[in-house]
Design brief:
mainly alpha, flat, 3 helices, 2 domains, 86 residues
């Protein structure tokens, strides 16, 4: 178990996850006051719904982008590796 927690890759992933969680929590806590105080959009209004749906869709699309780029890199690397065998 010690090897797992001292592995530099695991430590890097843990730090990255902490940072993204920190930013995500900050956005979730301050998003409604930001819309209300800065942009004068009241909770429950149509614009509030558009903004909250928009940020949710943006997070989902960002995840899809990372998944697609990882899959593309994997498949491209696999294809180029196989092409060199022939």
């Amino acid at each position: 178990m010690t090897r797992v927690f001292t592995n530099p890759i695991i430590i890097t992933l843990a730090v990255a996850e902490f940072c993204t969680g920190f930013v995500r929590q900050g956005l979730m806590v301050w998003f409604v006051p930001l819309l209300t105080e800065v942009h004068r959009i009241q909770a429950g209004s149509f614009l509030f719904s558009v903004a909250t749906i928009g940020i949710t869709v943006a997070w989902i699309l960002d995840g899809v982008r990372y998944l697609a780029s990882g899959l593309t890199g994997f498949l491209l690397g696999h294809f180029l590796e196989r092409k060199g065998d022939g």
